[in-house]
Amino acid sequence: MRRILVALTWAASVATTLTLPAYGADELNARTDPPKVIIDSDYNTLSDDGQLGVMAAQLQAQGSLKVLGITVVSGNQWLRQGVADALKSVERLGVEKQIGVYAGANHPLSRDFTTVQRELKAFPGGDGYIGAWSKPEPKSDRDLVAPPDGFATHTKVQRQSAIDFIAEAVKRNPGEVTILAIGPLTNIALATREHPEIVPLIKQIIYMGGAIDVPGNTTRTAEFNWWFDPKAAKAVLRLPIKQTVIPLDVTDTVQMDKALYDRVAHDPAKQTIITQLFKTLNGYGYDGKNGFETNPNYTTNIWDTLTLAYLMHPSFATQTVEEWVDVDTGFGANDGKARGYTSSPPPGLQKMTVVKRFDNPAFFDFYVDLLTRPVPVRSQDP
């Protein structure tokens, strides 16, 4: 969902062991027909979006998942920066020839900075995180901030737009493509608007987004991803597609503490460039002071990676409800707020699964295992 990378330097070593995960030995076996996914993301180096990229690449290497591509959208940061981070991510993992990066929408359908400023001033509250809006839009590559281990050296963004790629990938794989929607929904809204024929061909969309029965984060009522482009969210949620929502209702209950952090950052047998980046981000916080290395009582939510976990292990969702979900789009205190209806929904809404609780111990094993595997990613095919 969101986090700002704190740039530090380090020396990385390569992990040499791979342990059997507690969440199920069967998941180490290649699937004859692995799920096909598009990761639609406001990508970043190694906060939750970047972590999902690592985990998906490891699952692909073992034959359990097929990542068709990463489509980038503005959200956590502007599109150009997100693309740069995604390119370095696939190159860092050694999967740049298997997983392409596609540039999508640079601006939301329904927002401009003046309106954002005016609305937040009139209706204060929330944690103050506004993602890309908090910094100037980069006009060229010279305005970009390099990941701590540098920009990609040989990996280029795909020429095809994210919108056209989504449409083409779905048409090539009718009824088989799951979209993991872990950023603002602008790319998906545009793809389905410009290519409406793909709507019945999409297998499902799994979102990290919304705050239905809990407070928001960016504002008192709205979760960041859907707040960033509520018009897009409203349009996509109305599509007649199988949909599952992983909202703040559940992510607020899945928190990283020092013990979980240490399992990723400080296992001496599993040190990689990924675990070092993980330590850099989560160890020192936004300001270089408030993180697990400086405050052992620090905690942080885990967001986007729950979508991948749910795809691979639906049983991780221990409590779900079926609701019609909508998003407010009017200027005001509730702009971007998600609403769930158990009955008498407004016209046009689709009924979908909303996850309320997760099997945290099982998820944590899944999370730690995939983030601490050797890098570059190693194929486990026979």
This entry's quaternary arrangement is single chain
Give the helix/strand class.
alpha/beta
The radius of gyration is 19 Å
* The CATH H-level homologous superfamily: Ribonucleoside hydrolase-like
| Biggest sheet layout | 9 strands, mixed
Mean pLDDT: 92
DSSP strand count: 11
Second-tier CATH architecture: Alpha-Beta Complex
Q: Report the CATH topology name.
A: Inosine-uridine Nucleoside N-ribohydrolase, Chain A
Listing every helix as H and every strand as E from the N terminus to the C terminus, the arrangement reads: EHEHEHHEHEHHEHEHHEHEEEH
Distance between the termini: 35 Å
Low-confidence stretches: 2-20
Write down the domain tally: 1
Principal-axes shape call: globular
CATH class: Alpha Beta
- The proportion of residues forming helix, as a percent range, comes to 25-40%
Strand content: 5-15%
Topology diagram in text:
Layout: E1 36-41, H1 48-61, E2 66-72, H2 79-93, E3 101-103, H3 113-122, H4 162-172, E4 177-181, H5 186-194, E5 204-208, H6 224-228, H7 230-237, E6 243-246, H8 248-251, E7 255-256, H9 258-265, H10 273-284, E8 300-301, H11 305-312, E9 317-327, E10 338-341, E11 351-358, H12 360-371
Parallel strand pairs: 1-2, 1-4, 2-3, 4-5, 5-6, 6-11
Antiparallel strand pairs: 7-8, 9-10, 9-11
Helix pairs in contact: 1-2, 4-5, 5-7
InterPro entries: Inosine/uridine_hydrolase_dom, IUNH, Ribo_hydro-like
Protein name: Nucleoside hydrolase
GO cellular component, one term: cytosol
Question: What do you see in this structure?
Answer:
InterPro entries: Inosine/uridine_hydrolase_dom, IUNH, Ribo_hydro-like. One of its GO terms (molecular function) is purine nucleosidase activity. Keywords: Glycosidase, Hydrolase, Signal. By secondary structure, this protein is an alpha/beta fold. The chain has one domain: Ribonucleoside hydrolase-like (Inosine-uridine Nucleoside N-ribohydrolase, Chain A), CATH 3.90.245. It is built from twelve helices and eleven strands. β2, α2 and β3 form a beta-alpha-beta unit. The N terminus is likely disordered.
